[in-house]
Amino acid sequence: MKQQAPFIGVAGNIGVGKTTFTEVIAQRMGWESYYESVVDNPYLDDFYKDMSRWSFHLQIYFLHHRFRNHLEMSKSTHGVIQDRTIYEDVEIFARNLTDMNFMSGRDWDTYSNLFANMTTFLRKPDLIIYLKASIDTLLIRIKGRNREFEKSIDPEYLLRLNLLYDQWIKRITDIPLLIVDSDNFNIFQDKEYLDQIIEQMGEKLQ
């Protein structure tokens, strides 16, 4: 039986460097890259202005977009790497919005049930790479990319997401996992560390 091409998911908080990491690894490995819808997202700007009003709409949009990408990646005959996994939507972002009362219990039930039904049709990634960083690092990187809709992000919001990420990562038992500390990692300068990460990826995939 022919072995499937590798399917890698890159996970991590806002501003941690997932997009850059995905792009560099895709180039190094000759893989196809898939990115989350941010710049062209029709809800993000409204969401950051009024989270209670737009949280459910935003999460449904992300779920739809990532589900479509996930289906495409599952059928690919080439290696693929994805900027943010579909699992983070329910485990981190929608859960946090519900905990903060920005999403109602009714909307959470509808969303999480839809998520559960949709993901039964999906192939699981062969590896999840979790990029981890402190709040200070995240804030510096978010400021550096200068996205208008991100200027109002509350550090407390990022902290809550980081805590949920740590809890989620500990619960993952059915997908191989690689944790990368990215606080002092410059992917364009730290070639030795990047080579180590790629070597560890190969070991996990085997």
Keywords:
206 residues; alpha/beta; Rossmann fold; 5-stranded parallel sheet; 5 strands
What does the radius of gyration come to?
Answer: 17 Å
- Spatial order of the strands forming the largest sheet: 2-3-1-4-5
Shape: globular
* Helical stretch tally: 8
Mean pLDDT level: 92
Q: What distance lies between the first and last C-alpha atoms, to the nearest angstrom?
A: 16 Å
Helix content: 55-70%
* Second-tier CATH architecture: 3-Layer(aba) Sandwich
Under CATH, the homologous superfamily reads P-loop containing nucleotide triphosphate hydrolases
CATH class: Alpha Beta
What does this protein structure show overall?
- There is one protein chain.
- The chain is of the alpha/beta class.
- It has a single domain, classed as Rossmann fold (3-Layer(aba) Sandwich), CATH 3.40.50.300.
- The protein is built from eight helices and five strands.
- A five-stranded parallel beta sheet has the order 2-3-1-4-5, sandwiched between helices.
- Helix 3 (51-75) runs antiparallel to helix 4 (87-99), helix 4 (87-99) runs antiparallel to helix 5 and helix 4 (87-99) crosses helix 7.
- The relative contact order is 0.19.
